Amino acid sequence: MKVWILTAGGTIDKVYFDALSEYSVGHPQVAHILKAASVEIDTHLETLFRKDSLELTDDDRAVIKRRVAEVAGDRVLITHGTDTMADTAQALADIVDKTIVLVGSLCPAAMKESDAEFNVGFAFAAVQLLPHGVYIAMNGRVFPAGHVRKNREANRFESTD
């Protein structure tokens, strides 16, 4: 099995220089996370964007969708910012011949107490085990596209059902 990993940026890849500086979206952290966990599954990593998800446009989502449709395999993990992750999942929902899992973090992977490592590991397992469809995997829960939203006040994802 091969897992295709596409990165779009988001908090998971953010870098802060000091408390007064602006952040930047750095290089994808997912490869470092998987290497540190000694993951031996074959992967292919491709960076599509290095953007905060609030900066992603419908044209960017079309690029993500086109690239997902083009990959040779049927297992795709997408790292993505959390603010518009549900929008991108919904944009991918009509791709029915692949298992697509979107994942991100609420705290940058570079931070000591980040949820990034857990979320990536959880999503990496989910993309291997779930049937074809589009999902968001965050903080120990899996949500199908179209049935999830980010609750900013509670800082978590929740079902819309």
- Overall domain count: 1
Q: Compute the separation of the termini in Å.
A: 33 Å
Mean pLDDT: 89
Strand proportion: 25-35%
Instruction: Tell me the name of the CATH class.
Output: Alpha Beta
User: Can you count the helices?
Assistant: 4
The 3D shape can be described as: globular
CATH superfamily caption: L-asparaginase, N-terminal domain
Helix content: 25-40%
Strand order within the widest beta sheet: 4-1-5-6-7-8
The CATH architecture classification is 3-Layer(aba) Sandwich
Q: What is the string of SSEs from the N terminus onward?
A: EEEHEHEHEHEEEE
Give the class from helix and strand content and strand pairing. Answer: alpha/beta
Please state the CA-atom Rg, rounded to the nearest Å. Answer: 14 Å
- List low-confidence stretches: none
Give the strand tally: 10
The CATH topology is given as: Rossmann fold
Descriptive account of the structure:
- With 161 residues, the protein is an alpha/beta fold.
- The strands form three sheets. It has a six-stranded mixed beta sheet with strand order 4-1-5-6-7-8, with helices on both faces. A two-stranded antiparallel sheet has the order 2-3.
- The model has no long low-confidence stretch (mean pLDDT 89).
- It has four helices and ten strands, in the order E-E-E-H-E-H-E-H-E-H-E-E-E-E.
- The protein has one domain: L-asparaginase, N-terminal domain (Rossmann fold).
Fold topology:
Layout: E1 2-9, E2 14-16, E3 23-25, H1 30-36, E4 42-51, H2 58-70, E5 75-79, H3 85-92, E6 99-103, H4 116-129, E7 133-138, E8 141-144, E9 148-151, E10 156-159
Parallel strand pairs: 1-4, 1-5, 5-6, 6-7
Antiparallel strand pairs: 2-3, 7-8, 9-10
